[in-house]
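CHAIN AND CONFORMATION:

***
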Amino acid sequence: MSTDSTDSTDTPASGRTASVTPASVSTHILDTSAGRPAEGVAVRLAARPGPRAAWQELGGSSTDADGRCKDLPALPEGTTQVRLAFEVEPYFLNNPKNPNKKAEAQQDAPAHRDSGTAVFFPEVTVTFAVTPGEHYHVPLLLNPFGYSVYRGS
């Protein structure tokens, strides 16, 4: 029988409580007008520990040939909100793999739709709440005149 009176708890020997793994984020973009992944779109990632806290820019990446960002920065501990900013204008204007630089005219579309700027949404910014320890995959479905996002798996 041991005479050691050490209490066995989950607290490390240093006396600090164990930290919770931060949330993680991934994304990909599908160009629904072309029916293929959107390659070469710059994506910036920012995080904050609450709704009133300042945003901390964490860095970014660009989508690969599969439309995925595989090297987004890790989220800091304590993150509760995340912002992804997709710079889509250069993709629609300068990407040689994107033959649909402008949408085709449609019967129910306004006649002046394509006058002025060539890209209706030059940037798409998505802000969402996260819980520590969870993974969040946030796909962007993109076309020249609209977009949709959702929490994927």
